[in-house]
User: Which sequence fits this backbone?
């Protein structure tokens, strides 16, 4: 929770506190973006490296790799992004 003091509504001896809350949908969308975008980047980088060494990967292998990275990042990021909202 972030505390914000504003002179417009604070009186001497009081502090105005405002919670910096996003909606649940916005937080879930943020979690999805924070998980999928890096996973897609790393999956593409793995594919480029595989092509560079002469052994391109099957599309299903790339899909599973992207899904695994996405799930890992979601598990790591979820407690940080969704704290206090669920």
Assistant:
């Amino acid at each position: 929770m972030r505390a914000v003091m504003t002179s417009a509504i604070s009186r001497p001896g009081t502090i105005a506190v405002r919670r910096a809350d996003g909606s649940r949908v916005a937080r879930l969308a943020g979690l999805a973006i924070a998980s999928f975008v890096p996973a897609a980047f790393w999956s593409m980088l793995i594919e480029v490296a595989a092509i560079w060494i002469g052994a391109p990967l099957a599309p299903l292998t790339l899909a599973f790799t992207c899904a695994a990275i996405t799930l890992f990042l979601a598990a790591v990021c979820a407690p940080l992004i969704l704290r206090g909202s669920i």
The first helix runs from residue 24 to 52.
